[in-house]
Amino acid sequence: MIGSMVNQLMANATIDEIKAAGLEQFYADHRKGIYPSNANGVPFTAAYIESMSDPIANLSEDMAAEQKARATYENLIDLAEDPDIIGPLLFLRQREVVHFNRFKELYDYYKKKGY
Ligand SMILES: [Fe+2]
Q: What's the predicted TM-score (pTM) here?
């Protein structure tokens, strides 16, 4: 969804608007294409996906990832001014809360089973 939002925002942007937004470096490398990376330009890699055969370790990491995603959406909401951007970000933020709660249910389930 974030990629789609960025694509829509960039689609009709002029060079002057891209410069005013501080996106010259992004434009130089990717034009208006979507390139999954963090706010510092570090690209997404499969190295971010950690897993091992321990449900408590995996679920703990999943829950932490959901909280980090929630916090990131809150940071983006703080920076956004357009209600058409804030609305979807609020939806995505709430979705992360639900994900966290579902992982927590599984965490509690495995803890009860003695893991
Ligand atoms: Fe999530």
A: 0.82
